[in-house]
Amino acid sequence: MDFYLNVTVAGLETTRQICSDYGYWFRRGDETSLTLFFTDRALVSEVRRVVDDLKGPGSAPVHLIADPVPFHELHRFYRKKGLLNEWIPYRPGDLFRIHRLLEPNAGNQSYETQPVSIQFDVRYDQTVPEKRRVYRREQIAAILDAIDHLHPTSLIDWGCGCGANYSFLKDKLAQEGIRYQGLDTSRFLISKAKDLYETPESDPRVRFDLGDARRLPYPDHAFDLGFSESLLPLVPNPLAALTEMARTTLFGFFSSLYTIASHQPGLVYLQKERAYALDVGATWKYRKGVSEQVFYLPKTADVRAFARKVPHIVTVENKRHQFFDALGIRTVSVFFYPKRWFDQRRARFTLWNYQPLM
Ligand SMILES: C[S@@+](CC[C@H](N)C(=O)[O-])C[C@H]1O[C@@H](n2cnc3c(N)ncnc32)[C@H](O)[C@@H]1O
Description:
Layout: E1 2-6, H1 7-10, H2 12-25, E2 33-37, H3 44-54, E3 62-65, H4 75-78, H5 94-102, H6 114-117, H7 124-127, H8 141-150, E4 154-158, H9 164-176, E5 179-184, H10 187-197, E6 206-210, E7 225-228, H11 238-248, E8 253-259, E9 268-270, E10 275-278, E11 295-297, H12 300-308, E12 313-318, E13 332-338, H13 339-345, H14 350-353
Parallel strand pairs: 1-2, 2-3, 4-5, 4-7, 5-6, 7-8
Antiparallel strand pairs: 8-13, 9-10, 10-11, 12-13
Helix pairs in contact: 2-3
The chain binds S-adenosylmethionine (SAM).
């Protein structure tokens, strides 16, 4: 998607906003560009500085056409599909929303694009019959219980998608005055979450950020409580994400992942990712070559060693009903719980164990 903006009409402030939003949402390799053009000589040097600030190794291209475009040549730009309307006060994320609408199939098939990510649509709970639902309110029962028990003031949801779990939690969070932070690498899903839940009318304590669970842009203990649902098996180097989860939470977190207890034929161990790679094609579909989606399964021993070092969490292991049983791959799932909560609930634990967030 190639965007064009007439800087002379838009003015410096709008140009800055457009540039910063473009820099936030787009990356090199996206097949996008932003071209800034002028119809007189003012502002060129200021805008050049804005553009220089945006440049980095991974940034998407921005072109600046410094020579003013004469009136009789303006049609070259004004007929472009990606011409930005100088009079529209674009909101943060609007460029990506436009891109998503006009080029829904750009990029490879992943959470970035609709065909796969639509299955995580929050309307699932309204459109799919009860017995066929993947997402159920009961999945977050443990989190609701932990809220009552630990009284957190903030909660982070790593790999939040477009907010499926937030939709189940939102009434409780509002009632208790708890700050919610969602984070996901998928621009498609984050922009959708923002459209649904981060509107001018919505609770300002609810935020959705683009970000990677392996490098969280938050200080130590920034959140009281955290959880992830169906995230860690999709993250290259899940141990790095776990380390970040431990660092950024005070009371600990709910999470889970599949691990490999001993080497099995057909599995490749990736040193850098500290995990076995299980390449099954598209997520949830055992079809090869459909996407670049790979499951990452660390060694059980490495996860145990990690857990021993984190005082505020407890782990529970389970070998039954494993997701990859049908493929003949033996896994052990490890569940993480906030220690203070788990210690109180230990006696009732089987209740939670088989309705995990996974
Ligand atoms: C199976 S979906 C689960 C979505 C979400 N928990 C929900 O309930 O709708 C996995 C999510 O993890 C996100 N994801 C994958 N790798 C990530 C990473 N390194 N950091 C943050 N999110 C990531 C994907 O974009 C996707 O939204």
